[in-house]
Design brief:
heterodimer, A: about 400 residues, alpha/beta, Rossmann fold, 2 domains, seven-stranded mixed β-sheet, five-stranded parallel β-sheet, 13 helices, about 40% helix, about 20% strand, globular, B: about 290 residues, ABC transporter involved in vitamin B12 uptake, BtuC, 11 helices
Chain lengths: ~400, ~290
């Protein structure tokens, strides 16, 4: 091939390439949605749950052809960036998604610290951000207009875990509260304190510790010596697992132990086996709740389909994340917004989310002025015979709570 | 009083755990002068080896110890023989960068293969303990403490009572003279690294029964090992035991009587004081360059 031939073939190739890329841009309009989420590091496991939930939603939407706007369907394309469990990285990557990747919309990742940072960037660029895995009270006290959460406030999330004492006999009188010192878990600890006071439980010990603490035994020994009826723990998955391991090693069995987060993650029961029995955890969703929506079906169907896809039941944070993505989808459909989404469209989506009162498989999603979901009852679950069952409140209870906890040596 | 004794025992057992995975760090530094940043990854590999053998074949974690020892020996030997030996005689910065790179490679490969899930080995006897007059002693930690003593004694025996140990010592003291005496320096380095990795791997195996393991757990173990070895004396093997015990007891008493949050801060204050006042460790037998 001569020089002329080579130039000719390169020109044709270039034209083909341009035509191809334009073909994608013109022929296949999609909603490009991005989010920064911890896929590695301390919250790597939890962040992957959120990723699974968003993928589940996107695949379901795309299986139906996409989000339907004015009779035409637009598929969803998700982009996730790993923030390595670092809040500053979450902010950086959220900004990258908005300014460099120019995504149409963004979603929230896992964890209050990360979402706290990421949502500040979203607010600056007027991108509505719905999160299903961050609930620290501070998130809602910033006067932000673009931040929403399908979870309630962290302090309120643990209410079920304390109010459950009302149905226990004999009613516990004393408690100890420990929690790791990061945003969500320290607020959960504050929530325990508030609801314990309301329930007349005397708090004998209150302590926050670094999430990086390697050994819990010496701290738990101190709690054990005070002999509380209930141990309330402000936790993430790892903190919850370490606490159970430590309690068993130092032979500490209060009458009840509760965690703000951890027991609902499937790894908790899988890893701890029989040691997970009797453990009580906070939850905001349960598959037996009587809710439904046109996309996911009933709460039970969501649970079953999730199991079919991932071989495990969803955690409540996954249900909340999927419901958050669905809330945005419904807003887009109602407003008739098509991709590429412009700034004024995002302002309209934000306004619609504030107006919305949406019934989903997860429950009613109704965002308050600060962005927290106000229409959500906290549930307490307990591990019984290797399964999570709702034990409180009575309306959703599947079984009576096992109480008091059986001493380790008698199991 | 009972609380004090319980906290003290907890601290001593925690010290045993620290010593068990720090002895290898000290050995490697003592002989080669390499501060091994992927030390914690060797703890992780030992722990995951035990986890998988237990999960897939239901083999008791304690029975996996020999396999952990040999697997990590081979890993350590090969890494030193073919990678670190290339920079071992270059300025220390080269080995920092190289071992940091290996830390990233191992941690992220493990993450890719095993995902970020938190795991732990839960056996029928997990968390079991002896109650002696109100003082609770968890068996698995006691076993690790005993192991730490055996490891330190074993390395000591290897260094002072065997032919290869004398070659290792000669290399550590003056590698040029050792080379002139016919010692194959690179081989000695590889064997030393292998032994360091092997004893670290078995510590990892035992740790998997009472700590939570995940692919990115390594760095925090490397940091603790560094603190332990500075306290006990860099390169002085029994120092790992002293350093581990000091750190374990200080952390435990702090968590019990002050606040668990202060135990981490005190660790680094202790490290700072030691580096300024006694850089050769508590007994002054470490290497100071």
């Amino acid at each position: 091939m001569g020089l002329k031939g080579r130039v000719c073939s390169r020109t044709i190739l270039l034209c083909l390439l341009i035509a191809w890329t334009h073909g994608i841009a013109l022929g296949e309009q999609k909603f490009r949605i991005g989010y920064a989420d911890p896929l590695t590091g301390t919250f790597g496991r939890d962040g992957n749950l959120v990723k699974d939930a968003y993928n589940f939603w996107a695949e379901l939407v795309n299986a139906k052809g996409g989000i339907e706007v004015k009779g035409k369907k637009y598929p969803v394309e998700l982009t996730v960036i790993d923030d390595k469990s670092t809040a500053a990285e979450n902010a950086r990557f959220t900004e990258k998604l908005i300014t460099e990747d120019k995504v149409d919309l963004i979603l929230g990742g896992f964890g209050s610290d990360s979402v706290f940072a990421g949502s500040a960037v979203a607010e600056k660029y007027k991108y509505p951000l719905v999160s299903g895995a961050a609930s620290s009270d501070k998130l809602f006290a910033r006067g932000f207009k673009y931040y929403f959460s399908t979870l309630g406030k962290a302090t309120e999330e643990v209410r079920g875990c304390v109010d459950i004492v009302q149905i226990l006999s004999p009613k516990p009188k004393t408690g100890a509260i420990i929690g790791s010192d990061i945003l969500f878990t320290s607020l959960a600890a504050e929530g325990y304190r508030k609801y314990a006071a309301q329930n007349g439980i005397e708090i004998l010990h209150f302590e926050l510790f670094p999430i990086t603490l390697q050994d819990y035994n010496s701290m738990l020994v101190k709690v054990k010596q005070k002999n509380p009826d209930v141990l309330f723990v402000g936790s993430h998955l790892m903190v919850a697992m370490k606490t159970i391991k430590g309690m068993k090693e130092i032979d500490f069995t209060p009458k009840m132990v509760t965690f703000s987060y951890g027991p609902t993650v499937p790894d908790f029961i899988k890893s701890l086996g029989k040691d997970a029995e009797y453990v009580v955890g906070a939850s905001e969703w349960a598959p037996n709740l009587p809710y439904r929506d046109p996309l996911f079906g009933t709460a039970r169907q969501f649970n079953e389909n999730y199991f079919k896809k991932y071989g495990r039941n969803p955690d409540y944070v996954e249900a909340a994340s999927a419901a958050g993505a669905y809330a945005i989808q419904v807003a887009i459909e109602k407003l008739g917004i098509t991709p590429p989404v412009k700034e004024e469209d995002r302002v309209r989506i934000m306004e619609e989310l504030h107006r919305q009162s949406l019934t989903t498989f997860y429950g009613v999603v109704k965002f308050g002025a600060g962005g927290a979901n106000e229409a959500h009852p906290p549930v307490a679950v307990q591990v019984q015979n290797g399964k999570l069952v709702n034990v409180y409140p009575k309306e959703v209870a599947e079984a009576a709570p096992w109480y008091p906890m059986k001493p380790w040596k008698k199991r | 009083m009972l609380l004090f004794l319980q906290s003290l025992i907890n601290g001593i057992l925690l010290g045993g755990i620290y010593a068990s995975y720090s002895a290898g760090f000290s050995l490697i530094f003592g002989v080669m002068g390499v501060i091994n940043i992927f030390h914690g990854e060797m703890v992780m590999l030992g722990a995951f080896l035990t986890y998988w053998i237990f999960t897939l074949f239901h083999i008791d974690p304690f029975l996996t110890v020999p396999l952990s020892f040999f697997s990590l020996f081979i890993f350590g030997y090969l890494v030193q023989r073919f990678v670190i030996n290339r920079v071992v005689e270059a300025p220390p910065m080269n080995s920092y960068i190289l071992t940091f790179g290996i830390h990233l490679i191992v941690a992220y490969t493990a993450l890719w293969i095993w995902t970020a899930d938190f795991r732990t080995v839960t056996t029928s006897y997990s968390g079991m303990n002896a109650n002696m007059g109100g003082i609770v002693i968890p068996y698995a930690r006691l076993a690790t403490f005993v192991l730490a003593l055996i490891v330190v004694a074993g390395v000591y025996f290897l260094l002072y009572r065997t032919e290869i140990g004398r070659a290792i010592q000669a290399t550590a003291q003056d590698k040029e003279i050792a080379r002139l005496m016919g010692v194959n320096i690179r081989q000695i380095y590889a064997i030393t690294f292998g032994v360091g990795a092997a004893i670290t791997g078995i510590a990892g195996s035992l740790i998997s029964t009472y700590f939570i393991i995940f692919p990115q757990m390594g760095l925090s173990y490397t940091i603790i090992a560094f603190c332990v070895v500075v306290l006990g004396g860099m390169g002085y093997i029994p120092g790992a035991l002293y350093g581990g015990l000091i750190l374990g007891v200080v952390q435990s008493l702090t968590a019990t009587y002050l606040n668990a949050g202060l135990s981490g801060a005190l660790t680094f204050i202790l490290l700072f004081i030691m580096l300024v006042l006694r850089p050769a460790g508590i007994l002054g037998k470490g290497i100071v360059e």
